[in-house]
Records
---
Amino acid sequence: MKRIAIITGATGGIGSRFAEAVNLMDDIDEIWSIGRNTEKLKKLKESCDKTVSIETDLANDGIDVISSKLSDETPDIRMLINNAGVAYMGEFEKMGTKKVEQFCFLNCSVPSQLISACLPYMHDGARILNISSASSFQPNPYLSMYSASKVYLKNLSRALSVELKERKITVTCVCPGWVDTEMLKKDVEGKEVKYPGMISADLVVKKALKDSLKGKDMSVPGFFANYFRFYSKIMPDRLIMKQWVRGIRKYI
Ligand SMILES: NC(=O)c1ccc[n+]([C@@H]2O[C@H](COP(=O)([O-])OP(=O)(O)OC[C@H]3O[C@@H](n4cnc5c(N)ncnc54)[C@H](OP(=O)(O)O)[C@@H]3O)[C@@H](O)[C@H]2O)c1
C-alpha cells in the first residue's frame, strides 16, 4: 500500500517547508500537496520529487476532490498536515457576512472535515499536525476571527489527541508566534510593520515534526510564543488585550 502525507497550503511559506522536510522521509512514498496556485505547485514539484500536486480550492470543492482521490487509491496516510489558513487583521464589522463564513469554513471546517475524511485511511503510528497559532493563547481584538479560529483548532487537536490514543494516532497542535511568510504584510500604508520575535518557517517545521514524532500534543516554537503562552496563563485576558490593542493600533 502506498504511504502518503497530505499537506494543505503546501504552496505557502510554512507548507512548502513541511513538504521539503517530509520529502526526505523514507517512510513516505508520495506527498499530496494541496494548493490553488499552479505556478507555486509546479515549483514545489521541482524541489520535492514525491509531490503529487492537487490544485484545488479548499473553500470550494477541495474536500470532495481529496475524498474521491482517497477512495480511488486507498492509500496508507502516514501524515496529515492541516496547514492552509487565512488571516484578517482589521475591524470585525468591516469583514461582512460572506467573508466571515468563508473564514470559518477554511480555518475551522476544512481541517475538521479533512481529519474525518482521512481517519479511515490512518493506522498505528500515523500523525496529524494542525497548524494553529500563538493567537490561540488569548483573544486578539482586530484579529478576532483569526484568534477564535485558532482556538477552535487547538481545542479540536488536543481533544482528538486523547480520543485517538487508543488507535495510536498522534495529534499535534502547532502554535507559532509571528513567522516570516507572505501571510504577514510587510507594510501598511507605507508604515513598516514590526513583528516582535518573528521566526523562520524552517524553525516551526523542524520543531513540529520533532514534537509530533515524540507524540506531543502541543508544539510551540521560539521564545516569543513560549513566553506568550506562559504570560497568557498568569495574566488576565482584559490586560493582555489592552496591551495588544496598544501595540497594533497604528496599523489598523
Ligand atoms: N505567518 C505567520 O505569522 C503564522 C503564525 C502562526 C500560524 N500561522 C499559520 O500557518 C499556516 C500557514 O501560513 P503561512 O504563513 O505559511 O501562510 P501563506 O504563506 O499565506 O500560505 C497560506 C497557504 O494556504 C493556502 N490556501 C489559502 N486559502 C486556500 C484555499 N481556499 N484553498 C487551498 N489552499 C489555500 C495557500 O495556497 P494557495 O495560495 O496556493 O491557494 C498557501 O499555500 C496558516 O494556517 C497560518 O494561520 C502563520
---
Amino acid sequence: MLERRMSPVLKWAGGKTQLLEQIAARMPAEYNSYYEPFIGGAAVLFGIAPKQAFINDVNEQLVNLYTQLKNSAESVIAKVNELDAVPCTKELYYAVREQYNGKIVSRSFDAECAALMIWINKHCFNGLYRVNGKGLFNVPYNNKVKGKSIDESNIRSISEYLQNSDIVITCLDFEKACESVKAGDFVYFDSPYVPESVTASFTDYTQNGFALADHERLAALFRRLDGIGAKVMLSNNDVPLVRSLYDGFDIQSIDVKRMINRDADKRTGKEVIITNY
Ligand SMILES: C[S@@+](CC[C@H](N)C(=O)[O-])C[C@H]1O[C@@H](n2cnc3c(N)ncnc32)[C@H](O)[C@@H]1O
C-alpha cells in the first residue's frame, strides 16, 4: 500500500493521481535510481517517494516550483497565504497573472514566482497551463474556485522529502534527462499523450508542443534504455500508434474515467501501461 503522505500541489494535465495504485503495482520490486523525465504534477513521485531520484520537466516554472519547495517552502507558504487573504475577484486574478508574467519576462525564478504559480493554478480555468507565442501565461479566470490554495502540511511534507532524499531536479528535454540512466535503474515516462483522435493514417501532428516526431524519439529512447538493461515503464492512450511504437514490449490496457462528457459512452477511456520487464 502507498503511504499517501504527499500529494500534488498543482492541478496538472495528465495528472496520475487516479492511476497511481495501478502504476505502482506494476513497478519493479527493486531498482537503483528512479527517473521521471516528465514530472508534471509529480503524483507518481509523491506516491512512491523513492530515496534516490532524478526528476525533470521542460517547463521552467514547474522546475522552479519544485526547487523552491525544496529550499524555501516557508517563503512560498507565506506568499500564498498573503494572496489567499484577499478574496479573489476577476480583477485580482488578472492583476496577479500580470505580476506572474512579469516574473516570466524578467526570468525571476524565486519563491514568489512559485507562490504566484500555485495561486494562479488554483484560480485559473481548469488548472490549465498554457502560454502564448511570447511565453506569457494566458489562461483565463475561473470564478468558481474558493478557499485556500495550499495544504500547508502537504507542502512541508514535500519540502522535507525533497531535502532529506537524494533528488536531482533538472529542466531539460527528456532525452538529455536520461543520459545518465544505467543498467538496474528504473525510468517512468509519462509524456504528453497521443490524442485519442489520431488515426492510423495520420502523417504529422503536434499537441501540447509534443509532436509525432517526439513520440518517435521517445520510443527510440525506450528501446535504447531497454538495450542497456534499465527497467522502463510508459503510460499513454491506448491507440494504434502507441501500440505500433512499442510493439514487442508488454502492453497492458486499463480503463480510466474521463472528465464528464455529455455522451455517456465517452466517460471511460482506455490507456496503456507499457513495460520492458
Ligand atoms: C502528462 S504530463 C506528466 C503528468 C504527471 N505524470 C502528473 O502526474 O502530473 C507531461 C509533462 O511533460 C512535460 N514535457 C513536455 N515536453 C517535454 C520534453 N520534451 N521534455 C521533458 N518534459 C516535457 C510537460 O511540461 C508536462 O509537465
